[in-house]
């Protein structure tokens, strides 16, 4: 009987997957790589954000300068105080940071108003044609209304206008206290600041509208001091008032998200700083105006070299926390009250200059400064200085100098690299 052979093929078991341990190892490696990538991307984005904000500010200033040269007329940039709420390092919602700038726009400052004719008068509050012998105003500006002010009434303080349209200008918020009037009109005239208290827009306009000069007219007049009309037909009948700059029709220039210009860290004109006239806040008219020649004119030119401190918003808050150890600046009360436990003073009392809140020693936080909790170092983000040379109109970007020789947590001179000409990468 034939034997049937059966071929048995050996089957080799082959593993087609990964063990749990191998999967965990691969996943761990992927997570590490992902974390490193996210960190690197975030770091790069933060650096680009602050650097981009600095370049955006540089571009805005350069754009205003180019516009002035092209138009052969003054053009400028206006900075707007931030109006958004911000949070502290712990995520607590705090009040708006009204000591920073996040938006700008282009302006045309070349607006002069000269309608109608004017007369110059001595102090005559009741408008009876006779010079007042007493006054309820502090004419000499010494803070006290006394006999010295009564002696000032014979000086020329009032500007009477016919056909000037001042009432309508005030009603439209284009004429207000602090604006300047030049008498007479043109380069030969003298500028005076004005007060508009005698123009009442709640009633119909009077035929004669009156402005008050904050400093008396340069000439004493030619009529008898008892007569309020100071000149008998020989005074300059023309004038020009410098109206607020006109905002040019264009979208506002916004800095990148969470990027600000910190005004406390910046070196800015004194006219922009908080004062009693501005209610303890920075001025609402922070304007950099370029002439047709490309240089800076006006209040911003008085400083010579301006430094705009561009930083992360959290760094800006850290500067305010550092300032909590310094003098109680106007406008800072609400912010300091929002900090439950202000940090200890970082600046020795004998090194503080209360008359100058924009000192260099407050401008840059050192990375080693413990500003959050005792023993916890505050890690500073990217920072840049945008420097404007007002005499030439040149604009450049520089790094902040973090050198802190006395180890008080505040940079000694954050503007040093900018003034030496070291540009930022």
Structural class: alpha+beta
**How would you characterize the largest beta sheet?**
10 strands, antiparallel
- Order of secondary-structure elements: HEEEEEEHEHEEEEEEEEEEHHEEH
Beta fraction: 15-25%
**Beta-strand segment tally:** 19
User: Could you tell me the radius of gyration in angstroms?
Assistant: 32 Å
Draw up the topology in text.
Blueprint lengths: L19 H52 L3 E7 L4 E2 L5 E2 L5 E9 L3 E2 L3 E6 L24 H5 L4 E7 L3 H6 L8 E4 L6 E6 L12 E6 L26 E3 L3 E2 L5 E2 L4 E9 L18 E5 L5 E2 L7 E8 H11 L9 H5 L45 E7 L4 E5 L17 H5 L5
Antiparallel strand pairs: 1-4, 1-15, 2-3, 4-12, 4-13, 4-14, 5-11, 6-7, 7-10, 8-9, 8-11, 9-10, 14-17, 15-16, 17-18, 18-19
Structure description:
With 425 residues, this protein is of the alpha+beta class. It folds into two domains: 45-109 and 247-420, no CATH class; 112-244, no CATH class. Helix content is 20%, strand content 22%. It contains six helices and 19 strands. It has helices at 20-71, 147-151, 166-171, 313-323, 333-337, 416-420; strands at residues 75-81, 86-87, 93-94, 100-108, 112-113, 117-122, 156-162, 180-183, 190-195, 208-213, 240-242, 246-247, 253-254, 259-267, 286-290, 296-297, 305-312, 383-389, 394-398. Strands 1, 4, 12, 13, 14, 15, 16, 17, 18 and 19 form a ten-stranded antiparallel β-sheet that branches. Strands 5-11-8-9-10-7-6 form a seven-stranded antiparallel β-sheet, with no helix packed on it. A two-stranded antiparallel ribbon has the order 2-3. A hairpin with a 5-residue loop joins strand 15 and strand 16. The longest helix is centred in the first third of the chain and has 52 residues, at 20-71. The radius of gyration is 32 Å and the shape is elongated. Mean pLDDT is 78; it is low at 325-377.
